[in-house]
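For the sake of clarity, the format in which proteins appear in this thesis is described at this point. Each number in the token line that follows is a code from a learned vocabulary of backbone shapes. One such record is shown here in full, so that the layout can be seen directly:
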Amino acid sequence: MLVYMKKIIVSVNPGICGFSCQVIATRTSRRAVALEIIDSECEMINDLAANITEITLKDLFKPHTGNLIFNATEQAHCHLCCPVPIAIIKSSEVALELALPQDVLIHFE
């Protein structure tokens, strides 16, 4: 029996709203991660956190319209350009060893 529990922690600074948070993706099996979103003062992100507690490999590759993460984001009424859903996807990919950890940046000149 393999033991997983690889934990990836991503800090999210969303910009002007100021509601930063941490996304924690912990690999629980070959194809799944447990998800936590902590330290957010944003009511919508807290609603999102309550609705997504596990992500599977299958969830990561569904199109936007049928994607668990984007559907939960819409149900939580998150702003369209909120970076937290992308942080969920990226941290889950790294926890499942589908991607390497690399910072993402949107920079205004």
In short: Strands lie at 7-12, 21-29, 32-38, 54-56.
